[in-house]
Automatic annotation (TrEMBL):
UniProt-listed GO biological process terms: methylation
SUPFAM superfamilies reported for this sequence: S-adenosyl-L-methionine-dependent methyltransferases, Winged helix' DNA-binding domain
GO molecular function: O-methyltransferase activity; protein dimerization activity
Entry keyword annotation includes tRNA-binding: no
Annotated O-methyltransferase C-terminal domain residues: 144-352
Active site annotation, chain numbering: 275 (proton acceptor)
Keywords: Methyltransferase, S-adenosyl-L-methionine, Transferase
Domain O-methyltransferase dimerisation: 23-120
Gene3D superfamilies linked to this entry: Vaccinia Virus protein VP39, Winged helix-like DNA-binding domain superfamily/Winged helix DNA-binding domain
InterPro entries with a match to the protein in the record: COMT-like, COMT_C, COMT_dimerisation, SAM-dependent_MTases_sf, WH-like_DNA-bd_sf, WH_DNA-bd_sf
Protein name, per record: Uncharacterized protein
Length: 371
């Protein structure tokens, strides 16, 4: 007769398609658990403990939430769940009695490489604020229940349906949400801008770059740090520019990109701008960029690029996924585009040549040349 604790292998039948289908319908547990652990400072505590740290749930609770009353069973369940997704690493030690029967199990947890992107890092960037933005109960989570309505009636925009205003207006009326959202954009920008600057060398001959929709100048500060000879002009709406930090070599200018774009730059940089708008709005922006540039100038645009044919080995599935975020959260015709669609927009705006120079994950760096 068997007993609890014996390690005899139990016969198991697995249907991978059935299991994957079940995962699809239960996958909301993963971002929910990640957001919970982020709010509990678990990733921060593990990172601060050192690269090789392996901590028990109790040790993590003491470091992350000192003096707090903790339900250790609940915390342990969250830690095991994300370990099952290879986000944390579970290290198990079993002690036995004199006959070798297991009597105690100790579980320790360590950061896997992917989890380091969930540790807040003001210098290198992080995805943690983006996670918390998408998991915000008073903002984005309510949007999904209205997604199907937009298919049935294109006058319905899911975010506006949920909140009575679009996402941009919502941010203006909810300063705390706006703060987290801006941190999310800055954290994402810092991670990907470093990778883009490693892959793309089109800034080498640029003297002045205008960052249209530059936010807190996270991207621009990395460009000017990599290329100290470049002068930067950070261009955004007045309520954003008013709270921008002073940066060496960077001038902050407020305005409306649909009316005009600051001149004086031989390159205009736009990251995550064109995908926020419909084709008509993108044409207005690109035409204003064209007018602001000298004869030899260029626009450097970074956006997620949709495939004409899906490549499951690259970033294509992720680009398609982000495209649904644009559908759900924006009311301005926001969408990701294919290379063919970007070329069509650029030529219609007057540019002589449009080409994708390189890709980083799902992001494409596209140049719009005036001459």
């Amino acid at each position: 007769m068997g007993s609890v604790g014996e390690t005899e292998k139990v016969p198991t039948t697995i249907d991978r398609v059935r299991l994957d289908a079940f995962q699809l319908v239960t996958m909301s547990a993963l971002p929910g658990a990640l957001a919970a652990l982020a709010r509990l400072n678990i990733f921060e505590a593990l990172a601060k403990a050192g690269d090789d740290a392996q901590l028990t749930a109790a040790e993590l609770a003491e470091r992350a939430l000192p003096g707090k009353s903790i339900n250790m069973s609940y915390l342990s369940r969250l830690l095991r769940m994300v370990s099952g997704k290879n986000i944390l690493r579970e290290v198990v030690t079993t002690t036995g009695d004199k006959n070798g029967a297991p009597v105690a199990v100790e579980r320790r947890y360590a950061l896997e490489p992917i989890a380091r992107f969930l540790v807040d890092d003001p210098e290198r960037g992080s995805f943690v604020h983006l996670l918390l933005t998408y998991q915000s109960p008073g903002a984005f989570l309510q949007t999904w229940e209205h997604l199907h309505e937009s298919v049935l009636d294109d006058a319905i925009q899911p975010f506006a349906r949920a909140h009575g205003m679009n996402a941009w207006e919502f941010g203006k009326h909810n300063p705390q949400f706006d703060k987290v959202f801006n941190k999310a954009m800055a954290g994402n920008s810092k991670i990907y801008m470093r990778a883009i600057l490693d892959a793309y060398h089109g800034f080498e001959d640029v003297k002045v770059v205008v960052d249209v929709g530059g936010g807190f100048a996270a991207a621009l500060s990395l460009i000017t740090a990599r290329y100290p000879h470049i002068k930067g002009i950070n261009f955004d709406q007045p309520h954003v520019i008013d709270v921008c930090p002073e940066l060496p070599g960077v001038e902050h200018v407020s305005g409306n990109m649909f009316e005009s774009v600051p001149s004086g730059g031989d390159a205009i940089f736009m990251k995550y701008i064109l995908h926020d708008w419909d084709d008509e709005s993108c044409l207005k922006i690109l035409k204003n960029c064209y007018q602001a540039l000298p004869a030899h100038g260029k626009v450097i645009a970074v956006d997620n690029m949709l495939p004409e044919i899906i490549d499951f080995e690259g970033g294509d599935p992720m680009a398609l996924q982000v495209d649904i975020h644009m559908l759900a959260f924006n009311d301005s015709g926001a969408r990701e585009r294919t290379e063919r669609e970007l070329v069509k927009l650029g030529l219609a705006a007057g540019f002589n040549k449009v080409k994708v120079v390189c890709k980083v994950d799902l992001l494409a760096v596209t140049e719009f040349h005036k001459a």
